[in-house]
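Input record (one chain):
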Amino acid sequence: MTEIFTGGEIVTLDPTRPEAEAVAVRDGVIVGINDTQTLWGENVNATEVNIAGGCLIPSLIDHHLHLTAIGLSLLNQQENERLFLQLAGASSSSAIVDRVRNRATQVPKGDWILGMGWNQHDWGTHEFPSHEELSDAVPNHPVFLVRIDAHSAWVNQTALARAEITGGTPAPMGGVIERAANGAPTGMLLERAVEPILEQIPVAAGWEIREAFKLASKALAKRGVTEVFDAGFMASPAIVSMGVDFELMLELLTWADAEDPLPIDVNLMIPSPSKLADKIVGSPGAYAHLSPRIRVTHIKLYADGAFGSRGAALSHPYADDPNTAGLMRMTDDELEFETRRALEAGLDISTHAIGDDAVRRVLRAYTRVADDLSDVDPRRFRIEHFGYSSLGDQRIAAERGFLVVTQPNFIDPDNNGDTMEDCRLGTENGERVYPWRTLSEAGANLAISSDYYTSPGPALLDFYTAHTRANRAGMPSGGWQPNNRLTREESLRIATSLCPMGGGMPSGGIIRIGVPANLAVLSANPLTTNESDLLSIGVQRTLRRGKVTHRAESAHTSE
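The corresponding structure, as predicted from the sequence alone:
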């Protein structure tokens, strides 16, 4: 059956034909783009899909997110924070302690109390909290509270005791145990230092994780997304950990898809070093098509941590803490070894690198492997985040053609234009933070993603932030470091383009005859709508290969 979409604006993003009056779809493929009368003449038995003043665009692609964490957050919302406390927006550490104390009255003594999303900057301080507040208020329950960046946690003394972390416990490679002057743990654990704690925390039930995958997938389809790259299964409530049972998570994902086919395609990045990564590298073909919607495409590495926890590896001390320059989670030799074995196995490589020292080290490892494997498409080397970098490294990334995957919504200035990055790195370094315009003008291969590990935001948040570099209130006027803004068309093209496993030119991002009908019907045209109204644009309908995966209840489209 042929369907003809008409009755609204159509943004093709095809430079040879940027607009159209109608689009015809048959068997999941776009078969016609023309004026309405011509398409009806060519498809006399077609069905009309009137988008009633909406705007048809290519569907959105999210190149980096974490499905389990998104879904568990949504499930937690549905069940009134049964799984963990949602701490985002708390205005003080004492407010958080009060909530933890209250939860302790509701659960048996000895049970874990979990939380997610606190941010000390919301409390008016740059300093990390210590365990004393939590330990004094809740001595009979172990407490584990994940910071908003998902790379560190605040715990009480009971939790430290459960994991046998004491003043004499050495920090692991790639982790930091924050200590008081006497060497005792303060209760702040960064990066891999959280893993002994996570070993003591019961994992979510299998049905909860399966439900999480379903909820997350539906939430993304609701936002016009048809394909995602899952950047590594996270530990609950939402924290990066190499101690996750990745094989179990993979089994639960495929189980969820078998129970109820997911409305999105999922490309999986499996963190390494891990047992599952070893299995996949040894037999990649067995994981290349787990279902019509699920496949393993990348090995994922973590070079460093995050700015918020001062774990991103810098070439200089942090501006707000000169005693640290962050940390590397992997050695240079490990980065090169893992990159080489993934590419030689036919998989792609993806590496988290936020600080400028981490970016430099990853580029160096990638360059060595790329030179040795001269026939490998450079887009198979992905750098996740590329948060802060030297001008020289920006040029290298562009010239080598490596894929740079950015997260525009990481930029969240206050109304005065101040950001956490200004605080951590110094305002003098702001131009080198998330330098999208500089990278674009240098010819870099860019992809846009959300890095969601909690409830998703508005459908066009990443598009909006890539273009404005402002917060959701539109402040500061003109955006933070506005010289690195992208145009609306650039932002939309990148947000709808797919950089496939195995390299090659990006696909999608264009409405053209012969391409899969991966489409979204928006409530307004994102290229012409007032900037202040971009975040209010909703998704009326999402189609993956011509099949509707989301239809808004309030949509006025008709067939």
